[in-house]
Every structure is written in C-alpha cells, then in structure tokens.
Amino acid sequence: MKHLRGFTLIELAIVLVIITILIGGLAMPLSAQIQARRVAETRQTMEEAREAIMGFAMTHQLAGQPYLPCPDTVGDGLENRDATGICSSEEGFFPWVTMGTGGQDAWGNRLRYRVTAAFADGSTGFSSTDVGNLQVCSSSGCATVDVASNVPVVLVSHGPNGRGARSASGNSLANPSGADELENTDADSNFVSHVPAAPDTAGGEFDDLVVWVSDSLLRSRVCPAGGCP
Fold first, then answer.
1. Most exposed among 40, 89, 167, 197, judged by the fewest C-beta atoms under 10 Å?
2. Do the beta carbons of residue 46 and residue 103 sit within 8 Å?
3. Which residues fall within 8 angstroms of residue 97, CB to CB, at 6 or more apart?
4. Residue 213, Cα to own-chain centre: how many angstroms?
5. What pTM was computed for the model?
C-alpha cells in the first residue's frame, strides 16, 4: 500500500518565507507606482490651475488692464478681495471655486497660492510697468535666485508628506522640519523648488511641487498683441 507524503512544518515555513519575500519585493514597486501616479495627477491639477489663472486675467479687466485672482483666505474656495478690489492677503489658498478647477492635490490637501499684489489689484489692473515680486530658488533663503525671478504668481502643493498644508477638510497639518519646505510656508516672497530630497540632506526632507506663471508667459497669453497697457 502506497502512503502519501505531505509537507513537513519546516518545508511549509520555508515556503511561507519565500512568499513573504516575494510579496515584499512586489509591494515596493507598487507603492512607488501609486506615488508616481499621485504626483502626475497633482501636476495636472496645478497645470489646470495655472491655465485658469491666465484665463481669469483674460476675462477680468478694468479699462483694458487685466488683473489676477486673489487668494482664498478662509478655505471656502472663493477669492477674497475688499469692496475696492484689493486682495485681503497676498497669500492663501488657490480659489478653486472661483476658478472652477480642482480644489486639492492627490493627497487631499489645498494648493497654496501667492500673487504679487499689483497683479491682482482689481481697482486698477496690472500694467506694463508692474513687476512680479516673487522668486523661486533651489534652496532656502534665496541668497541667489537661480530658478525664477520677478514672478507674479506661485502655486505650491506640499507633496506626499503634506507638511505645512491644510487638508480639504480644513485641518492644518504638521509644519515641515526641513528649511527648504519651511521656505514654502513662511508667507514671504521666496519659494523653493527642486527634486525630492531625503531628511538627511542639507535642506532637509523635500517633496513639495511648485509651479509659477512667469511675467513673460502671462503677458504673452493675456495681451498677445504686444504687452498690456
């Protein structure tokens, strides 16, 4: 009579270890793919926001002089400006309801938005002599402006770690620990944009996504005939 032989406990344990290793090896690439997709989705959202900003200026003009949207300062998605047309603040959140675009990045956080006051002045509109006062650098402090200068508008997603962001539900997330990410939250005119960095790098952890509208692009789109009045 032939006896059937099953697996021993040791053999089963070896099989389980092998399966665990294989699953672990597959999980990392899958996680990376999900993160890459979220980054791509956020970049698309930010690009749509940038296009909407220029579209706003095309349709909002005073005596032929266009102006940009003001930030949302209360979190309802509407731009905030006073009765005279002046922005309540130069920095806040992207006014997604006013603009009719996506209101958050792929991690569920609001986009930070800062605009040069002269470019969003609804009482006069901006002119050919106005200059953006924002700048983008590759490190904190902006001792040397090496990415973009004289920028009218900057948009920031605080990336996968969300540090310094406000969630779509209205919760303020923990502040960044690194100098480069802190530069994008301190409400001044300096911003940082560079490739993602680990916590042990000079400027600390960095995964923010930053886009801007340059002065030349804005004017070429809003006033294609050759400069705004």
1. 40
2. no
3. 72, 76, 77, 78, 103
4. 13
5. 0.85
